[in-house]
Amino acid sequence: MPADSKNLEVILNCIAQGVVMFDDSRRLTIWNKQFEQNMQFPDGFLKVGMPHMDLLMHFAVAGIFGEGDPVEISRDRLDLIWGGAQTRIDVALRTGETYEMLCQPTPEGALVISYTDITLHIEAENSSARDQELTDQIFLATPVPLAVVRRSDASYLKINAASLELFGLTEAEMKSKHSSELYAEQNDRQRLLAELDKSGYVRGMEVRLRNFHTDEVRECLMSMLPAKLAGEDSYVVAALDISKRKLAEEDLRKAMKEIDKANQNLEQKVIARTRELQAAKNEAEAARHEAENASQTKSEFLANMSHEFRTPLNAIIGFSALIKGALLGPLDDKYQEYAGDINTAGEHLLEIVSDILDISKVEAGVLDIMEEEVDLTEITTSCGKLVRGRVDEAGVTLVFDMAADLPLIRVDSLRLTQILMNLVSNALKFTPQGGRITVTGNINHADCVALAVSDTGIGIAEEDIPKVLEKFGQVRSGHMHAHEGAGLGLALSKSLMEQHNGTLEIKSEVGKGTTVTATFPQERSNELPPRRAKR
Asked: 188: domain CATH number?
C-alpha cells in the first residue's frame, strides 16, 4: 500500500465520526473503522467498489429509513444524496442511536459522507421539548392569573384562563388591548415598571385592575419578572385577586371598632370581677384550711378516743373470757352464752378501734413502717391458720395458690398480715356458704410481687368500687345491706399499701365475685428468680 494511502487510513481512523467516500461512479472507495462499527455492518460486508445503491438497500431492508418498499426508498435516498448539494439526513438505528449523515459532493464528482452521533443532542432536544410542554401546561392550568407581555409594545404574547376570567375578556380581546388599558389607575402600571427596572423584579405590589365584563375594580397583588419569549424582551406578570380579603379586612376593621366601643368599660368590669373572684378564692382557701383543721382535729380525737377505748375493752374481753371459760366457777348455759357474746362483741369492737387508730396514724403521717425481709408464703400460711375456724364456720373453701418462685419482699410483716387478714375477712363476709376464696401470690408482667384474694361472693357494682375504698364507705344496695361492717377494712388496706408505695386494685362483677389485688413495687423484692430477671 502506498505511503499516502496508509497515512490517509490512519487519519480517517483517528476521526471520531464515521467517514465514507464514493467515487463519481457511485462506488465505495474508502471508509474508516468508526463508520463500519457505528453502522453495525456484518464482518466483510463492506468492499471496495460496492455500489452505493447496495449500501442504501442494506439500510432500507433493516428499516433504518422507515417502512415502505426498500427499493423505492433506496432510490429516493440515492437521488437526494447525489443531488449535487450538501445534504443533512438523520439516521436512527434500531438500537437507539441517531446519527447525522452529512453528504458533501466534491468538485471531481465524488461524494464524502460523515456520520456524527447526535443521540444525546436529540435526547436533550426531546427532553427540552417535554419540559417546555409541561411548563406550558402548568402556565395555562394554574389558577393564578398569568400573562407574558412584550416589553416593546405592551401587547400580550401569552395568557392563561385565570387571567381571562380576572379581566372578563376572551383571549382575542385581551391580545388586542394595550396592557395599560387593564389598569383602573394608570399610575399603577408606571409604578410596576419603575420597580421592575429598579430591582429587576416586582413582588406583591398592590394595584387596581378592571374587569370588562362586570365593570368591577379588583384589588390585586401584582408580581413581575423579566423574561424572553421567542427571543423578544418580555416580562411575566402574575396577579393575585385580594378583593375578598380587602372586603374582609374592612369588615374586620368595622367589627374591631364596634368591639372597642363595646369594651370601653370592660377593663373596669374585669377589675371588679377579678376582685370578686379573689374574694371567693380567699373564702374558699379559708374554708379549706378550716376543713383541714377539722379533719386534723377529728383524726386526733379518734386517735385519743381509740386509746381510751382500748383499756376498758381489753378488760371486758379478758373478764368475759374468764366467765365464758367458767374459770371462776360454773355458770348455767344461758350466762355462758351471754359471756361468749360479750367476748365476741368486745373483740370486734377492739378490731374497729384498732383500725380507726391506724387510719388516724396514716392521716397524721405518724404510722411507722418497720421493714424486714418477709417470706410471703409464710405470711399467707399463718393467716390461713388464724382464719381457719371462721372459714369452717362460714362453710366456704379457702385455697392458697402461691408461686414457687416468689422472692422475699421488704415490708412491715405486721402490716402485711393486717392487709391480708382484712382482705380475707372481707371475702368471708360477702361469700355465701359453699363458696370459694382463693389467695394467689405471683410475679406479674411488670416483675412486681402481687397478692390477690378472689371470692365467689355477691360482688360489687363497678360504680360502687370507689365508695368501698373510702373510709367508712359502705354500699347500701339490696344485695349487700345484710352484711355488717364499719367500712374500714379496704380503706385501711389501701392506705397501708400506699405506705409501702404499692397499690390496691378491685375488680368485681355483681353475682360472680370479687378480686382484690395488692401489688408491691419491684424495688421491694430482695431478688427476682433467674427466669424472671430483666435482660
From this structure: 3.30.450.20
